[in-house]
Amino acid sequence: MPRQHRWTLKPSELCLGSGPVTEGLIWSRLHLGYSSERTRISGLSNLPKYFTLVEMRELKLEAQNAVSQIEGNWPKALADTPEIQMLQGILAFLEAPEDARSKANDIYIAGELIRSHKLLDTIENRPLTEEQRKAVVIDEHRNLVVAAAGSGKTSVIVAKVGWLLHRGHRKPSELLLLTFAKDARNEMKERIKSRFDTAIAHKITVTTFHALGMAIIGKVEGKRPSLSHAAEDKRGLLELLKVIIADLFADSRISTILRDWFQGEFVPYKSEHEFKCWGEYHDYIRKFDIRSLQGETVRSLEECEIANFLYLNGIEYKYEAPYQRDTATSVKRQYKPDFHLPEHDIYIEHFGLDVDGSTASFVDQEKYDRDMKWKRKLHAEHETILIETFSHERADGKLLRNLK
Question: Which tens digits make up the pLDDT trace of 201-257?
Fold first, then answer.
């Protein structure tokens, strides 16, 4: 229902004649004027650019001010005139401005993905994914893109630069690209140089947060500050981090948070059952360089969590150390259990099985079952203690709890 207002015009004020057209002209000029918000709201269905949250708030305020100046309730004869329909559009926008913004941006994004498809297909070596494309064309004042390492964030940044320049939203000299590490900065620079003309690439600033901070301090203070030894020496940084972490572990509350993080939150978890082939799984392990806190490269994130659990609880262990009895044959190498706890003479074997007892699709199920039975039999024959863990325990959030 349209918002109702008191009609205050006197009959004598309609002296230019009668009829909806004349009355509509007089009423709209007296009460609506030629405000820009009418045009802007009516144009939400065909936006030339992304409608930001800040712009929505500004338009909402302007529309509220415009409506507050309307003192009358329009005559029924004017209900179908363009002026009244425009006013009804303003009132509808004010009832749910965020919904109007969301609908307008959905239309804009769909259209912009079509308009910019060639750029987004060719700006990088591979066409961008649907999520990457949306991250590029959504042009909010502040955009947060959350993604795991190696998932293509750099590609999104490079494509964003190309899109902003292509659409004329920014000049090259207005763009600042920041990274944390020098290696990432160098990679970003090379990407920019290879994707854009030399004159354009030269005007785009690519630097690290550290270098930017130093430059700002140097410009403001007239000289750059001296750096800590740890900032320029990796070994010195490592020693400093050890001291900091040790101090943090002295606080029981912080210690609990750190333990939880080191025991499983430091890498985005994926079970080997989620991969189609061994190559994909191997790339996942290699990409994140999954190592325990003790320094070993382990075969899975699940094994890393077990190793870290033992390390953080002060339990000595050896990873893939030879079994205490000789098992090597002409066709089989010496058996090396996943973990051995020498102080307790306990072995831990982690089996990559789901709740149904199935291996990942790329693992030979029959061979895996034979090897698992052989290990169990070996420990039973030599009366060594074997603790078994399974992939489905990690998927169910029970792995570490069961170890406790």
Answer: 999 999 999 999 999 999 999 998 888 888 778 888 888 888 888 888 788 888 777
CA angle 281, 368, 392 (to 5 degrees): 60
Q: Looking at this protein, which amino acid is placed at residue 315?
A: I
Vertex 63: Cα angle to 58 and 65 (nearest 5): 100
Alpha-carbon gap, residue 20 to 22, rounded angstroms:
6
Tokens 């899109």 belong to residue: 163
N-terminal to C-terminal alpha carbon distance within the chain: 63
Write the DSSP string, 97-133. HHHHHHHHHHHHHHHHHHHTHHHHHHSSSSPPPHHHH
- Cβ 135 vs Cβ 158: under 8 Å: no
C-beta atoms surrounding 356 within 10 Å: 6
Residues contacting residue 84 through CB under 8 Å, at least 6 positions apart:
24, 28, 74, 78
Q: What is the dihedral of CA 104, 108, 109, 112, to 10 degrees?
A: 180
Closest-CA residue to 351 (of 298, 282, 300): 300
Report how far residue 133's alpha carbon sits from residue 113's, in angstroms, rounded to the nearest whole number: 7
Put the strands of the sheet holding 385-390 in their side by side order: 318-319, 339-341, 346-351, 385-390
* d(C-alpha 306, C-alpha 400), whole Å: 7
- Cβ–Cβ < 8 Å for 378, 388: no
Instruction: Provide CB contacts within 8 A for 338, sequence distance 6+.
Output: 303, 306, 319, 320, 347, 348, 349, 350
Q: Coil, strand, or helix at residue 273?
A: helix
Domains of the chain plus CATH, in order, are 11-106 (no CATH), 116-221 (3.40.50.300), 263-403 (3.40.960.10)
Per-residue pLDDT for 358 more than 90? Answer: yes
Which residues, listed in sequence order, are joined to residue 206 by a DSSP beta bridge? 177
Q: Provide the CA 38 distance to its chain's centre, in angstroms.
A: 37
Strand partners, 371: none
Question: What single letter denotes the amino acid at residue 183?
Answer: D
The pLDDT tens digits for 178-192 are 998 888 899 999 999
Helix H or strand E segment including 206: strand 205-208
What backbone torsions phi and psi does residue 57 show, to the nearest 5 degrees? -65, -40
Q: What is the CA radius of gyration of the chain?
A: 33
Specify whether the CB–CB gap between 248 and 218 falls below 8 A: no
